[in-house]
Protein backbone atom coordinates (compact mmCIF):
# COMPACT_ATOMS: atom_id res chain seq x y z
CA UNK A 1 0.00 0.00 0.00
CA UNK A 2 2.44 2.64 -1.14
CA UNK A 3 1.71 6.25 -0.37
CA UNK A 4 -0.78 5.85 2.47
CA UNK A 5 1.52 5.11 5.37
CA UNK A 6 1.68 8.65 6.69
CA UNK A 7 4.48 10.55 8.46
CA UNK A 8 8.00 11.30 7.32
CA UNK A 9 10.88 9.12 8.46
CA UNK A 10 10.74 5.36 8.94
CA UNK A 11 7.62 3.31 9.52
CA UNK A 12 7.36 -0.46 9.75
CA UNK A 13 4.11 -2.34 9.95
CA UNK A 14 3.86 -6.00 10.87
CA UNK A 15 7.50 -6.69 10.00
CA UNK A 16 8.15 -10.40 10.47
CA UNK A 17 11.33 -12.43 9.89
CA UNK A 18 11.53 -16.20 10.12
CA UNK A 19 14.78 -18.17 10.20
CA UNK A 20 13.53 -21.74 9.85
CA UNK A 21 11.52 -22.38 13.02
CA UNK A 22 12.77 -19.19 14.75
CA UNK A 23 10.55 -16.11 14.50
CA UNK A 24 13.31 -13.53 14.90
CA UNK A 25 10.97 -10.54 14.35
CA UNK A 26 7.30 -10.98 15.12
CA UNK A 27 4.87 -8.38 13.76
CA UNK A 28 7.09 -5.37 14.52
CA UNK A 29 5.50 -1.96 13.97
CA UNK A 30 7.54 1.11 14.85
CA UNK A 31 8.13 4.69 13.68
CA UNK A 32 11.17 6.95 13.64
CA UNK A 33 10.16 10.50 12.77
CA UNK A 34 12.23 13.12 10.98
CA UNK A 35 14.88 14.41 13.37
CA UNK A 36 13.79 12.01 16.09
CA UNK A 37 16.16 9.79 18.10
CA UNK A 38 14.53 6.47 18.91
CA UNK A 39 16.08 3.62 20.89
CA UNK A 40 15.59 -0.11 20.31
CA UNK A 41 16.79 -2.14 23.27
CA UNK A 42 16.40 -5.69 24.47
CA UNK A 43 18.33 -8.73 25.67
CA UNK A 44 20.90 -10.59 23.53
CA UNK A 45 19.14 -12.55 20.79
CA UNK A 46 15.94 -10.46 21.04
CA UNK A 47 16.02 -9.72 17.29
CA UNK A 48 17.39 -6.16 17.12
CA UNK A 49 20.04 -6.74 14.45
CA UNK A 50 17.57 -8.85 12.51
CA UNK A 51 15.23 -5.86 12.52
CA UNK A 52 17.95 -3.58 11.08
CA UNK A 53 18.77 -6.25 8.48
CA UNK A 54 15.09 -6.53 7.53
CA UNK A 55 14.48 -2.78 7.33
CA UNK A 56 17.55 -2.17 5.18
CA UNK A 57 16.87 -5.13 2.90
CA UNK A 58 19.65 -7.47 4.00
CA UNK A 59 17.31 -10.24 5.10
CA UNK A 60 13.92 -11.39 3.84
CA UNK A 61 10.85 -10.23 5.71
CA UNK A 62 7.11 -9.87 5.39
CA UNK A 63 5.19 -6.75 6.35
CA UNK A 64 5.78 -3.15 5.34
CA UNK A 65 8.80 -0.83 5.45
CA UNK A 66 8.18 2.77 4.40
CA UNK A 67 10.54 5.72 4.30
CA UNK A 68 9.13 9.22 3.91
CA UNK A 69 5.79 7.74 2.90
CA UNK A 70 7.24 5.53 0.17
CA UNK A 71 6.81 1.79 0.49
CA UNK A 72 10.26 0.22 0.02
CA UNK A 73 9.32 -3.27 1.24
CA UNK A 74 9.93 -4.92 -2.11
CA UNK A 75 13.14 -3.06 -2.97
CA UNK A 76 16.66 -4.51 -2.76
CA UNK A 77 19.12 -3.10 -0.23
CA UNK A 78 20.87 -0.66 -2.57
CA UNK A 79 17.58 0.95 -3.59
CA UNK A 80 16.46 1.28 0.04
CA UNK A 81 19.78 3.03 0.64
CA UNK A 82 18.99 5.43 -2.21
CA UNK A 83 15.54 6.00 -0.70
CA UNK A 84 17.27 7.23 2.46
CA UNK A 85 17.76 4.21 4.76
CA UNK A 86 21.37 3.99 5.98
CA UNK A 87 22.91 1.71 8.55
CA UNK A 88 26.10 0.95 10.41
CA UNK A 89 27.31 -2.58 11.10
CA UNK A 90 28.13 -4.16 14.44
CA UNK A 91 31.61 -5.12 13.21
CA UNK A 92 32.20 -1.62 11.79
CA UNK A 93 35.80 -2.13 10.71
CA UNK A 94 37.57 0.66 8.83
CA UNK A 95 40.45 0.48 6.38
CA UNK A 96 43.18 1.14 8.95
CA UNK A 97 45.76 2.44 6.47
CA UNK A 98 43.40 4.75 4.60
CA UNK A 99 42.70 8.27 5.75
CA UNK A 100 39.43 9.28 7.31
CA UNK A 101 38.35 10.93 4.04
CA UNK A 102 39.30 7.88 1.98
CA UNK A 103 37.31 5.64 4.32
CA UNK A 104 34.20 7.74 3.75
CA UNK A 105 34.79 8.01 -0.02
CA UNK A 106 34.91 4.22 -0.36
CA UNK A 107 31.43 4.04 1.13
CA UNK A 108 30.01 6.71 -1.19
CA UNK A 109 31.53 5.78 -4.54
CA UNK A 110 29.88 2.79 -6.15
CA UNK A 111 32.29 0.14 -7.44
CA UNK A 112 32.33 -1.88 -10.63
CA UNK A 113 33.07 -1.20 -14.27
CA UNK A 114 29.81 0.60 -14.99
CA UNK A 115 30.53 3.04 -12.14
CA UNK A 116 34.03 3.62 -13.50
CA UNK A 117 32.56 4.33 -16.95
CA UNK A 118 29.98 6.73 -15.45
CA UNK A 119 32.76 8.53 -13.53
CA UNK A 120 34.64 9.07 -16.80
CA UNK A 121 31.61 10.27 -18.75
CA UNK A 122 29.96 12.31 -15.97
CA UNK A 123 32.55 13.05 -13.26
CA UNK A 124 30.89 13.34 -9.83
CA UNK A 125 34.04 14.07 -7.92
CA UNK A 126 32.99 17.52 -6.75
CA UNK A 127 29.63 16.16 -5.49
CA UNK A 128 31.35 13.38 -3.62
CA UNK A 129 33.89 15.75 -2.07
CA UNK A 130 31.08 17.96 -0.76
CA UNK A 131 29.19 14.94 0.59
CA UNK A 132 32.28 13.65 2.38
CA UNK A 133 33.02 17.06 3.91
CA UNK A 134 29.42 17.39 5.01
CA UNK A 135 29.34 13.90 6.56
CA UNK A 136 32.63 14.47 8.42
CA UNK A 137 31.54 17.88 9.70
CA UNK A 138 28.26 16.39 10.94
CA UNK A 139 30.14 13.92 13.15
CA UNK A 140 32.69 16.52 14.29
CA UNK A 141 35.59 15.19 12.22
CA UNK A 142 35.82 18.09 9.79
CA UNK A 143 39.51 18.66 10.53
CA UNK A 144 40.55 14.98 10.69
CA UNK A 145 40.12 14.10 7.00
CA UNK A 146 43.82 13.51 6.33
CA UNK A 147 44.43 11.40 9.45
CA UNK A 148 44.95 7.66 8.89
CA UNK A 149 42.08 5.74 10.53
CA UNK A 150 44.55 3.69 12.60
CA UNK A 151 45.70 6.85 14.42
CA UNK A 152 42.22 7.73 15.73
CA UNK A 153 40.85 6.86 19.15
CA UNK A 154 38.17 4.16 19.18
CA UNK A 155 35.49 6.81 19.75
CA UNK A 156 36.55 8.72 16.64
CA UNK A 157 36.85 5.53 14.59
CA UNK A 158 33.21 4.80 15.46
CA UNK A 159 32.30 8.28 14.23
CA UNK A 160 34.02 7.60 10.89
CA UNK A 161 31.76 4.54 10.63
CA UNK A 162 28.77 6.81 11.18
CA UNK A 163 30.05 9.31 8.59
CA UNK A 164 30.30 6.46 6.07
CA UNK A 165 26.58 5.83 6.57
CA UNK A 166 25.63 9.51 6.42
CA UNK A 167 26.65 10.22 2.82
CA UNK A 168 24.10 10.34 0.03
CA UNK A 169 20.45 10.92 0.71
CA UNK A 170 20.39 9.74 4.35
CA UNK A 171 16.92 10.28 5.86
CA UNK A 172 16.98 7.64 8.58
CA UNK A 173 20.16 6.28 10.17
CA UNK A 174 20.10 2.89 11.87
CA UNK A 175 22.98 2.51 14.33
CA UNK A 176 23.66 -1.09 15.41
CA UNK A 177 25.62 -1.09 18.69
CA UNK A 178 27.73 1.93 17.71
CA UNK A 179 29.03 2.56 21.24
CA UNK A 180 30.37 -0.94 21.98
CA UNK A 181 33.74 -0.60 23.71
CA UNK A 182 33.51 3.16 24.34
CA UNK A 183 34.32 4.55 27.78
CA UNK A 184 31.93 6.88 29.59
CA UNK A 185 33.46 10.09 28.23
CA UNK A 186 33.56 8.77 24.64
CA UNK A 187 29.97 7.60 25.01
CA UNK A 188 28.90 11.13 26.11
CA UNK A 189 30.65 12.65 23.09
CA UNK A 190 28.96 10.08 20.88
CA UNK A 191 25.58 11.14 22.30
CA UNK A 192 26.34 14.77 21.35
CA UNK A 193 27.15 13.74 17.77
CA UNK A 194 23.88 11.77 17.53
CA UNK A 195 22.03 14.93 18.60
CA UNK A 196 23.94 16.91 15.92
CA UNK A 197 22.78 14.39 13.31
CA UNK A 198 19.15 14.57 14.42
CA UNK A 199 19.02 18.38 14.32
CA UNK A 200 19.85 18.10 10.62
CA UNK A 201 16.46 16.41 10.20
CA UNK A 202 17.75 12.85 10.07
CA UNK A 203 15.83 10.26 12.06
CA UNK A 204 18.06 7.97 14.16
CA UNK A 205 17.28 4.45 15.36
CA UNK A 206 19.83 3.61 18.06
CA UNK A 207 20.46 0.05 19.19
CA UNK A 208 22.90 -0.30 22.06
CA UNK A 209 23.42 -2.06 25.37
CA UNK A 210 24.81 1.16 26.93
CA UNK A 211 21.70 2.21 28.84
CA UNK A 212 23.14 5.57 29.89
CA UNK A 213 23.59 6.40 26.24
CA UNK A 214 20.23 5.10 25.02
CA UNK A 215 18.04 6.38 27.84
CA UNK A 216 19.97 9.65 27.96
CA UNK A 217 19.85 10.60 24.28
CA UNK A 218 16.61 9.07 22.93
CA UNK A 219 13.26 10.84 22.62
CA UNK A 220 11.42 7.50 22.71
CA UNK A 221 12.40 3.85 23.14
CA UNK A 222 11.07 0.49 22.07
CA UNK A 223 11.91 -2.67 23.97
CA UNK A 224 12.09 -5.98 22.11
CA UNK A 225 11.97 -9.46 23.60
CA UNK A 226 11.76 -12.73 21.64
CA UNK A 227 11.24 -10.73 18.44
CA UNK A 228 8.23 -8.77 19.72
CA UNK A 229 7.93 -5.16 20.83
CA UNK A 230 6.91 -5.37 24.49
CA UNK A 231 7.16 -1.66 25.33
CA UNK A 232 6.99 1.73 23.61
CA UNK A 233 7.36 4.98 25.52
CA UNK A 234 9.72 7.59 26.86
CA UNK A 235 13.04 6.69 28.49
CA UNK A 236 11.59 7.78 31.83
CA UNK A 237 8.62 5.43 31.41
CA UNK A 238 10.96 2.59 30.37
CA UNK A 239 13.02 2.95 33.55
CA UNK A 240 10.01 2.20 35.73
CA UNK A 241 7.99 -0.19 33.54
CA UNK A 242 7.74 -3.59 35.29
CA UNK A 243 7.81 -5.57 32.00
CA UNK A 244 10.94 -3.73 30.81
CA UNK A 245 12.67 -4.18 34.15
CA UNK A 246 11.83 -7.89 34.16
CA UNK A 247 12.85 -8.47 30.53
CA UNK A 248 15.97 -6.37 30.30
CA UNK A 249 16.90 -3.65 32.75
CA UNK A 250 16.78 -5.67 35.95
CA UNK A 251 16.26 -3.93 39.27
CA UNK A 252 17.51 -1.73 40.69
CA UNK A 253 18.61 0.04 37.51
CA UNK A 254 21.84 2.03 37.39
CA UNK A 255 22.16 4.72 34.74
CA UNK A 256 23.78 8.11 34.49
CA UNK A 257 22.16 10.10 31.74
CA UNK A 258 24.48 10.95 28.85
N1 LIG B 1 21.09 -15.65 9.79
C1 LIG B 1 20.44 -16.25 10.78
N2 LIG B 1 20.01 -17.54 10.63
C2 LIG B 1 19.33 -18.15 11.63
N3 LIG B 1 19.02 -17.57 12.81
C3 LIG B 1 19.42 -16.31 13.00
C4 LIG B 1 20.15 -15.58 12.01
N4 LIG B 1 20.41 -14.35 12.49
C5 LIG B 1 19.86 -14.28 13.73
N5 LIG B 1 19.27 -15.47 14.04
C6 LIG B 1 18.54 -15.77 15.26
O1 LIG B 1 17.53 -14.78 15.38
C7 LIG B 1 17.38 -14.38 16.75
C8 LIG B 1 17.62 -12.88 16.86
O2 LIG B 1 19.03 -12.60 16.67
P1 LIG B 1 19.59 -11.12 16.56
O3 LIG B 1 21.05 -11.22 16.25
O4 LIG B 1 18.75 -10.33 15.65
O5 LIG B 1 19.40 -10.58 18.04
P2 LIG B 1 19.97 -9.24 18.73
O6 LIG B 1 18.86 -8.70 19.56
O7 LIG B 1 20.56 -8.36 17.71
O8 LIG B 1 21.12 -9.80 19.68
P3 LIG B 1 22.47 -9.04 20.25
O9 LIG B 1 22.01 -8.01 21.22
O10 LIG B 1 23.21 -10.17 20.91
O11 LIG B 1 23.19 -8.47 19.05
C9 LIG B 1 18.36 -15.23 17.55
O12 LIG B 1 17.65 -16.36 18.02
C10 LIG B 1 19.39 -15.63 16.53
O13 LIG B 1 20.00 -16.86 16.88
Automatic annotation (TrEMBL):
Domain ABC transporter, first and last residues per copy: 10-251
KW DNA-binding (keyword) present: no
CDD domains associated with the record: ABC_Mj1267_LivG_branched
PROSITE patterns, per database record: ABC_TRANSPORTER_2 (PS50893)
Molecular function GO labels: ATP binding
Pfam families: ABC_tran, BCA_ABC_TP_C
InterPro entries registered for this protein in UniProt: AAA+_ATPase, ABC_AA/LPS_Transport, ABC_transporter-like_ATP-bd, BCA_ABC_TP_C, P-loop_NTPase
This protein's UniProt keywords: ATP-binding, Nucleotide-binding, Transport
Protein name in the entry: ABC transporter ATP-binding protein
Species in which this protein is naturally found: Gordonia sesuvii
